[in-house]
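request received
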Amino acid sequence: MTSTDASRGIAATEPVWWGWGPAVAHDPLPETTRRLLAYLGITGQPSPPVALDEVRLPPARLPVSARAALVEVVGASHVRDDRETRVRHCRGRSTSDLLRLRAGDAAAAPDAVVLPAGHDEVLAVLRVATQERIVVVPYGGGTSVVGGLAPSGHGDRPVIALDLSRLDRLGRVDRESSTAELDAGLRGPRAEALLAEEGLTLGHLPQSWEYASIGGFAATRSSGQASAGYGRFDDLVVGLRVATPAGSWELGRAPASAAGPDLRELVLGSEGAFGVITQVVARVRPLPARRLYEGWTVPDFATGTRLLRALAVRDLRPTVCRLSDETETLAGLAGPPRQHDTTRRGSLEGADRTGTDLDSGPAAALDGAAAGGGCRLVVGYEGAGPAVERRAAQVTVVLRAGGARRLEPAAGTDWELGRFRAPYLRDALLDLGIFAETLETAGFWSALPALYADVRQALTDSLGAAGLSPVVMCHISHLYENGASLYFTVVCAQGGDPIRSWHAAKTAAGDAIIAAGGTITHHHAVGTDHRPWLGAEIGGLGVEVLRAVKRTLDPAGILNPGVLVE
Amino acid sequence: MTSTDASRGIAATEPVWWGWGPAVAHDPLPETTRRLLAYLGITGQPSPPVALDEVRLPPARLPVSARAALVEVVGASHVRDDRETRVRHCRGRSTSDLLRLRAGDAAAAPDAVVLPAGHDEVLAVLRVATQERIVVVPYGGGTSVVGGLAPSGHGDRPVIALDLSRLDRLGRVDRESSTAELDAGLRGPRAEALLAEEGLTLGHLPQSWEYASIGGFAATRSSGQASAGYGRFDDLVVGLRVATPAGSWELGRAPASAAGPDLRELVLGSEGAFGVITQVVARVRPLPARRLYEGWTVPDFATGTRLLRALAVRDLRPTVCRLSDETETLAGLAGPPRQHDTTRRGSLEGADRTGTDLDSGPAAALDGAAAGGGCRLVVGYEGAGPAVERRAAQVTVVLRAGGARRLEPAAGTDWELGRFRAPYLRDALLDLGIFAETLETAGFWSALPALYADVRQALTDSLGAAGLSPVVMCHISHLYENGASLYFTVVCAQGGDPIRSWHAAKTAAGDAIIAAGGTITHHHAVGTDHRPWLGAEIGGLGVEVLRAVKRTLDPAGILNPGVLVE
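response:
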C-alpha cells in the first residue's frame, strides 16, 4: 500500500485521504487476525481504494464574490479548493464514509476549505457565510464516525469546511487553578506535547486521539480511555469560547455556579450546529509520575460487569478500565495474543471447525470457542507513585474477592501499546474486502445486561439475515457510579452492499438500545446517523428546545444543517 | 414570642409566617451573641412582627371561572385563598422578604394557592393557567433568598402559587444502579427519612434543608454542606420529570451520554421559569456507617485557603469542609464558643473597646481583635468506617504540614449541632432590630483572594457609608479541584431603611463579584435579585438563549415571569 500511495504523490507519513493515518501504519494485517478470519470463514475480495484522480468530485460551486469575501478574511492561501484538499475534507471516518471514499464517491465534499487563524476570523467567516448563504461545516480532526461532517437538507447552497487547524496554541496556563486555555484546532498529541512542557496533561485519550481536535472533543462529548480517572471531556471543560453567527460567546466564570442553567452543557455536544468552539478552558493535571497497566481474567462477562460495578460504587475506579466480553477476549482485540495467555489461544486453536458450533455460522463458532475461556480485563492506574500503589492494592482486593485472576505484566502493557490501533486495523480489513464497524451505548447498571444482550442480538440477526456471518464483540470501557458504557465491534463479510447492510443493522441496534433503556450514543455524538433516535432520547420537547437554541444562535441556518437537528 | 404566636392561633411547633421555622426555635438570642453585639456597639430597637390580621393583603383577583377550572383539576380543598395560606406563600426568605412581611406588607402574595397531587395534575393546572392567563409560581419549600418566588412584569394577571407539597413520595429505588425517584415536593428531612428506611441517603444538606424541597434543590442548583463528599445537587440528579405548558418532558437515560447537549443541565437552575420539576431521579448512597467531624485552627484565612486547595488538587476533599475567616471565627458563627477554644474567646473578651480599632467602627474593631487569632476550619468525613479513617489520616497529614492544629473533638461536633441554626438566629436578630443577611459567590483558585477582598470591601464601604457599621464575615464551604465558594454574612444596625441600604450594598457586592471574575451566585440561584448581572455572567447571547428556551416551553409566559429572565 505504501508504494502505491507514494506513486499517487502522497507522502508515506501523511494520513491517507481514504482511511486512518498514514498508509504505512495500515499494512500488513497482523498474522493473528488473518488466522482468526480464516478460522471464522470470513473472507472478502481484495478491495484497494481508487486513485485520487479517479475520485468523482462535483464541481466547486462557491460564487466568485463569496470566495473573494472569504479571501479577504483569511487570505488567499487559506481558501482552498484543490481536489486533494476537498476530498480530504469529505465526510468523516465511519466505515460507510470510508467505503464511499474508497469507491471514489466524494459527492459530499465541500466546495472549498477555509482555514481561519483565530476566533475573530471565525466570526468574520460566519458573517460572510450568513450574507452569502453559504453552509459552514466546522472541521476539527475530521474523525466523526456518525456523519457529523455531512450536512443535509441545505439544497443548492454552497458548502465550506471551516478547518480549525490553524487555531493551535496553548493559551494561558493557570497553574493555581489547574486550568489551561487550549485552542480548538489543537489535535490530541500536540495539545499533550504543549501541556507536557508545563508538566501537565489533559489525560484525554480516546481512540481517535492522534487526529481528533480539542474543539471536536468538546463539540461531541468525547470520552477518553482514561475517563474513569481524568473524566469525560465534558467533565474537563470549565470554560468555552464560541463564535456563533449571532456573535461571540464566552462561558465559565467559576468551577461551579447556580446562575441559572449551565449553558456550557448546551455548547458541549452541539456538534457545530450552534456555533464554532474556538477555545476551551480545560482542567489540567500534573503529568502522572507513575503508570501501571495490568491484565486480569474474570470467569465471564456478567461476573466482570458486577466487579466493575463493585469498584464504581466503592469509588475505586481505576484510571483505565476495559472489560472485554468472551468473544472480544477470544478475538484478541483487547490486545495481541501472547504466549502468557495460553488458555485463550489454546481454546481458539484447539476448537473444531467442523463441529456443531460452525453449523450456526462464524459468530456462534467463536462464541462456542469463547465460552468458558474467561474475559480479559485491563485496568490502568496513573498518578503519583504512592496513590497508584494504594489504588491498585484496593482494586486488587475487590477483583480477587470476585474471582478475578491477574495475568502476567505483559497483558497490561500489550493493551497500552495497541490502544490506538483499531482504526488502522479497520483499513487493513477494508483492503481485504472485510467489513468492520463499531457502535456504542451506555445505561444504568440495572439496564446493562439486557442492553448488552439485545443489541448483540439485533446486530447478529440483522447481519445474519443478510448472509454476512457477523462476529459481534463488546467491551465496557467507561464506568460510572450509576452505570457503564457498552462498545460493540462488528466484523463480517462485506456482501454486495455493505453500506446498506450496515444501515439496516445499525437501525436494528438503535431500536434495541432505545427499547432497552440505553442512550443512543455514549461518546460518538449524534451527527446525522443517530438523529432518528434523538426524539426518543430527549423527547419531542427536547428536540424543539434544540431547534429554538439553533434559531437564536444561527438564525440563517448556515451551521452544519441536518447535523444534531433538522 | 411563643405565647404571642399562640395568641395569634398559630401552633408553637409550626413555622411562623414571618420567619424561619417555629417561633420557639428563634428565642432567645444566645447570650454569646448578645455579648458580641454589645461589644461591637451594634444596637437596634425591638421590632416584633405585626399580627397576622394586621398584614396588608390585596384582594384575591382569581376569576370565578378560573377558580372553578382549577377546582375541577385538584379538588376544592386544594385551591386555597384564605389569609394565612396566602401570606405564608408570599415571597421567600431573604432578609428583605422577611422585613417586608414583618412590617405587614404582603402585596406580593399570590391570589390563591393550588396544591396538585401529582405530575398529571400539574400538567392540567398549567393548561388551565395558559387558557386563563394566570401566572404560576412553582412553590417547593418557599425558602428562596433571591426573590425566586416574586414574579414581576406580569401586569394585572392573577397569580397562583403552585404548592408541590402533595408530591411527596419516594418512587422506584434502583439499588443496583444506586438511584431513586424522589417526588419534587418532598422536603429534606422526609426525603432522608424515606431513604433511610432503605439504608440510603442523598447526603444533600444545605442550611435550608429542614424546609426546602427536592424540586427546589434541582431548580436552584442547591449545594449542600457536604457537597465535597456527595456532590452538589446538580451532580446528584441523573434524571428529571418536568411538566411544562408545552407538555411533559422526561430526561436522563444513562449515567452519561453524547446524545447532544445535556438538557438536564438546562432544567437544573431553571427556577420554575421553563417548567415544573415534578420528580427527580437522584443518585443515592448507603447511609454512612461512620461520621467524624473535627475542628482545626489555621494561622490565617489565606493559609487556610491554600490548604483547602492542596486538599482539592490531591483529590483529598473531606465530605464537609468549612473554613471561616478571621472575623467569622471570632464572631463564633462557625460554632458556639466553648471552653476548649480559650485563645479565641480571650482575644475578644480581652480586647480594649476604647482603643484605636473602635475609632474605625465595629468591623475594624472585630478585625483588630481577630487578627492573629487564627481561623476555624471544620472538616467532616462520612462513609464506611475504614474509608473515613483512611481519608481523615490523609487529610491530617496535609493540614499538619500546612501549619494547622487540631482542636478538641467538641469543636467538630459543635458545628454539626449548629449546622442549621443560622436562619433561626437571623429571626432573633430581626426581633431586636438588627440586620443580618448573606450572599455568596465562587471563583477559580487564582481569582479567590481578590474576590474575597473586593466583595468584603464593597459591603463594608456601602453599609459603612450608610452609617450602619457592618460586620462582614466569610467562609469557604464548597471545594472544587479548580476553585471554591465564598459565603459572606453581614450583620449591622438596621438604620432607617434597611431594605434600601441592603439593596445598595448587594449591588456594590454584585458589581465587585463580576469585576473580580467570580460567579454572581454559587448556590442561591438567580431569582429576581441576581438578574441584573445575568448578562455579565452568561453573556447577552446566553440570556437570548434562555429566552428562546422559555418561549418554546412556556409560550404564554405564565411561569414565574421575571424570575431568571425577563
